[in-house]
Amino acid sequence: MTSNLEYELKDVEGNLASSFGIKDGNKFLTGIFPVLDFGAGYQVIDALYVSASLNWYLNWFAKINSILGESDGDDSAEIAAGTDYGFNKYITASLGFAYAKQGGNGGEERLIPLFP
User: Fold this and answer.
1) What does the alpha-carbon distance between residue 115 and residue 112 come to, in Å, rounded to a whole number?
2) Which of 45, 47, 42, 51 lies closest to 91 in space, CA to CA?
3) Residues 6+ apart with CB under 8 A from 19
4) By the number of CB atoms within 10 A of the CB, which of 7, 39, 46, 59 ranks highest?
5) Is 57 exposed, middle or buried (0-12, 13-18, 19+ CB in 10 A)?
6) Are 77 and 109 in contact, with CB atoms under 8 Å apart?
């Protein structure tokens, strides 16, 4: 259940590329991982709308092999929640937060304020 992207390098020039072993004819096969997205929203009252979403990146489906090297990663996820409040027909305020956990070696976690 993965799509693969295969590419071959051509017309590589320069000393920096050759010092890293990058040369014409190098071939790479990179898997493109699937993503599952879910979202829901609810109009609480006329002026207030709340929403939530989940993005789940299935990194374990794909092996990444590129110029920069090979890697396998754990799944990544983003969970977000937000609200919109309409003061009148001209002014609306929005606020939200997202929590993200990035897969891979030493996965990184972040809490991100959102001000759309």
Assistant:
1) 10
2) 47
3) none
4) 59
5) buried
6) no
